[in-house]
Design goal:
The protein is an alpha+beta fold. The protein contains 3 helices and 7 strands. It has a 7-stranded antiparallel sheet with strand order 1-2-5-4-3-6-7.
Length: about 170
């Protein structure tokens, strides 16, 4: 009787156990390399903490809230802005009481920050120019949104109460 199919002399491409092992090792090895590249890019591009000592700030958050409540109760306010000229920008801040008169303050500092990075943060000490106004020359700032955080202590009787003002400035 004649057979309709020819017998195979040499079986072509038979998948064996070691082939499967090498394919699995290659697949998971590639996944580890890709995940390692993404992990390296994430760690080097953003440290994960935008504010300094965030844990300690969280512990003292209620103190900050009570200082803000006292600031609002007393009617203390600030005016923050930029003066631009050919010589460069100047940060101007006025710290005023509820009647518009200047308040007695300690040294006034300003922290100028980008929203999601610490790479461009600038800390300045503002110089008093009279009438509750303080100024500081700024280095060249890039276009975009900047947060200005003014901090000082205001003498209220025998105690010094922390004062903070936050202003968002957009440079074009």
């Amino acid at each position: 009787m004649a057979s309709l199919t020819r017998p195979l002399k040499h079986p072509s491409k038979v998948m064996k156990g070691h082939h499967v092992l090498f394919w699995m090792m290659g697949f998971f090895g590639l996944m580890l390399v890709v995940n390692g590249v993404f992990l390296w890019a994430a760690i080097t591009s953003f440290p994960g903490e935008d504010v300094h000592h965030s844990y300690l700030q969280g512990i003292h958050f209620n103190d900050k809230l009570s200082a803000q409540a006292h600031q609002e109760k007393m009617g203390w306010r600030s005016e923050v802005g930029l003066l631009t000229s050919d010589d460069g920008d100047v940060l101007v801040c006025r710290i005023l009481g509820p009647d518009g008169n200047p308040l007695p303050t300690g040294p006034v500092t300003a922290e100028i920050r980008r929203a999601a990075t610490q790479n461009s943060d600038i800390v300045l000490t503002l110089a008093p120019v009279g009438g509750g106004e303080y100024r500081a020359s700024l280095p060249l700032l890039a276009e975009g949104a900047w947060h200005v955080i003014i901090g000082t202590d205001i003498r209220d009787g025998d105690t010094e109460v922390p004062f903070q003002a936050v202003k968002k400035i957009i440079l074009q």
